[in-house]
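Exercise 3.2. Students should predict the tertiary structure of the chain below and write it as structure tokens, then compare their answer with the key that follows.

Predict this chain's 3D structure.
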Amino acid sequence: MKREELWITSKLWNNAHAPEAVAPALEKTLADLQLDHLDGYLAVMLAHWHPRQAAWIHGGAAAVILLIGLSRLYLRVHYPSDIAAGYAVGGLWLLLCLQALQRLRPARSAAD
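Answer key:
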């Protein structure tokens, strides 16, 4: 299988969210995976490189998620209840993760 046929994504680890740590973390991930690029790091890198447009970048990502759900309805591959449930579970997971991050962040800064 050729690299062009694959969509490879990775995450930015929680210890690398400082602006100066993002690029080195990406380089380490690329070296670890023996790749020259990733497909799924784009929004994080764009928000890092263009902090003034970060809200637009995140809004665009949310719009893509919404449009994917709507396309599933248009193509009639899912029921509306399936899409609503997917959004609800995804939203709940996002809220739980943000709440956990908020609770861990003060503890982490106190330890530093």
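Discussion points: Helices lie at 19-33, 42-49, 54-74, 80-111. The chain has four helices and no strands.
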